[in-house]
Amino acid sequence: MSIPTLPEGTILLENQVAGHTFQDSAEAISMLRSAGEGFVFKPLTKPLCAVREKDFYEVVLKSEDGTLKELKDYVPNYHGIEVMNIRGKDVEFLKLNDITHGMAEPCVIDIKIGRRTWDPLATEEKRIVESSKYVRCKENVGFCIPGFQVFSINAGKMKRYGKEYGKSLDENTVIEAFKLFLNADTKLHRPLISKILCSLQKIKNWALNQRKLYLYSSSVLIAYDAKRLKEFICAPSKFMKELTCDELVSVREDPSNWIQVKMIDFAHQFPNEDGLPDTNYIHGIEHLVKIFEDILQNC
């Protein structure tokens, strides 16, 4: 499908590694980004999902509840709703911080958390379709990888891996996928892995303790700048000091902070009314943390 004329001041989000794009169908809409201002725009095209995701960000933004105030640290900053005209129709978009803003060679991976990726209102047909996707990864490690891009330092170019690659992964090959994303063929860089791991551990701890939400089909988005990685590999003395976890994650949205980890995609979040742990999410995030612990231990 052709790309329509985009609203003034916006361009395609070239770092989008998962989700619908204009090429999918006449109804599908890609994510957009502002031209130079550091924002991304996520289209809200399904009415029920749109309400849930808008409500999520509005509640998290304004809440004084401790659990939700902490969650604010782990999601992109929210700047309200923008209405833009796409193909002659007004479309609502979430306006969020672009976590790759300022990155010269952004490496981005989308990790969908949970063995179950359908919400309680899903039709039987939807459940069957969802349960047939990424089966080996979801069943064995509780998450899947719909897509990622990595600027290969050795090859000197950007490489993209889509959903077909993600569907081929299992509990063993998914580790190799993460090493590919981390430019391990150049050298595994401990500060890069440590920063990602510390952020994942904080998300895991939040998930273990919270009883407010059930998260279905929500992702963790990891991004880092391969250009900065090259600088640190060439000058390791810049990271001679072993930083604590709190020091590694203390700067949340600073563009100079070249490693970012955020929770995204909340169109299928539901209130937790029974007070039980969200074991579906916990299972996936615990496995993800364990994989990065193992990678760090072996580098």
Automatic annotation (TrEMBL):
Alphabetized UniProt keyword annotations: ATP-binding, Kinase, Nucleotide-binding, Transferase
Catalytic reaction(s) noted: 1D-myo-inositol 1,4,5-trisphosphate + 2 ATP = 1D-myo-inositol 1,3,4,5,6-pentakisphosphate + 2 ADP + 2 H(+); 1D-myo-inositol 1,3,4,6-tetrakisphosphate + ATP = 1D-myo-inositol 1,3,4,5,6-pentakisphosphate + ADP + H(+)
Superkingdom of the source species: Eukaryota
Single Gene Ontology BP annotation: inositol phosphate biosynthetic process
Keyword DNA repair: no
GO CC annotations, alphabetized: cytoplasm; nucleus
GO MF annotations in UniProt: ATP binding; inositol-1,3,4,6-tetrakisphosphate 5-kinase activity; inositol-1,4,5-trisphosphate 3-kinase activity
E.C. number(s) listed in UniProt: 2.7.-.-
PANTHER family named among the record's database cross-references: INOSITOL POLYPHOSPHATE KINASE (PTHR12400), INOSITOL POLYPHOSPHATE MULTIKINASE (PTHR12400:SF51)
Family that this chain belongs to: Belongs to the inositol phosphokinase (IPK) family.
Protein name: Kinase
